[in-house]
Amino acid sequence: MSNVPRSALPPGVLSMHVLPADHHDRDWDAIIVPREVKERLLAQALLVLQHGRKLSMLSGLPHGLIVLAGPPGTGKTTMARGLAQVAALALARQGATQLLEINPHAFPSDMLGESQRNVTRLLTETVPEIAARRPFTVVLIDEVESFAVRRSSASFEANPVDVHRATDAVLLGIDEIAKNLPSVLFVTTTNFIDAVDEAFLSRADLVMRFALPDREAVGHILAHALGELAVQWPALLPLASDTARISELAALCEGWDGRRIRKLVLAALAQRLEVARDPSRLTWDDVLSAARKKGGVEWAGGAAPTSREMFPDVPRELMHDHDHGHALHDHGPGSQPHTHTHQQDAADPPKLVS
Ligand SMILES: Nc1ncnc2c1ncn2[C@@H]1O[C@H](COP(=O)(O)OP(=O)(O)OP(=O)(O)O)[C@@H](O)[C@H]1O
Ligand SMILES: [Mg+2]
User: Fold this and answer.
1) Whose CA is nearest to atom 7 of ligand 1?
2) Which pTM value belongs to this model?
3) Which terminus has fewer CB within 10 Å in the chain: N or C?
4) Residues with C-beta less than 6 Å from any ligand 1 atom
5) Beta-carbon contacts of residue 304 (< 8 Å; ≥ 6 apart)
């Protein structure tokens, strides 16, 4: 497994992983969707990766392009990563799979001519060079609406000619790769499918729309999230396996996306200081109360205690001196050097920090 240091990555590439790799199993398993969703995705990926060469002989050749569309936090990116790992597992005996994550912000649409050049370099140089190293390649592009900007949309401020050329370059690049590198699969995600170019969407072999989880799926996600907590803090095992209460909780979280549901578990741990400091003390009341407050906080009650009221007994030797590491130039021209004096240090001469 190679996680290439960022400095060694080609331009526009966020990360590169060779799959299958041990610690990549989690993503696929974490996303709770109907069985058919995972099966359809995997079948599509394997069809292209494994049989792309033969299929590229067809008049209606696949473009090796999957689009995952849907609201934020519904598991698209996680699913895409998981798909790469599971496809790589399926193909492992025929060779390794390179997963390449593209930085969608490497292609700004507001620099004249620059985005077109960047796209062209990515699709005609970077991807082909990397694809040549391994039998199978999966390219993940998040926020694809900024990569294949809908040309018919008038709602951008950037130079329309420039946007046009960049999207043209994407289409051209995808077509070339479909013909010449049939074992390359693009998995792309978007929150704004209406902002993705129509001709790009038309090239997709599969456009899968992600929805918010239904009540049953919410329950499964909660159970999964609590189960993960119980792995870290085994005292929480009874709580994590209480299916009756989990479905009661699920009712409070209807309409939430998967990300928010997972964050609820974190919010529950942060309801009380005592629990934050020792998560094995988490109770159902904490979880339910976090859900009722929708993960936030209710503004009621008296004044909060002061820091020293809360933590009166931190030993003096654990308190750090006033060496904060501020650089002098942080304070702007003409400002006085920044010094701190604490009450009990008041006798110390003020010290300049550098
Ligand atoms: N259906 C689901 N089942 C389980 N967990 C989910 C589900 N959907 C989302 N999550 C969790 O929510 C978090 C966010 O998921 P992810 O980043 O894949 O969403 P996304 O659809 O790509 O969001 P965005 O559109 O904002 O990029 C992850 O921790 C993921 O495990
Ligand atoms: Mg995402």
Assistant:
1) 258
2) 0.86
3) C
4) 30-33, 72-78, 189, 191, 213, 221, 258-259, 262
5) none
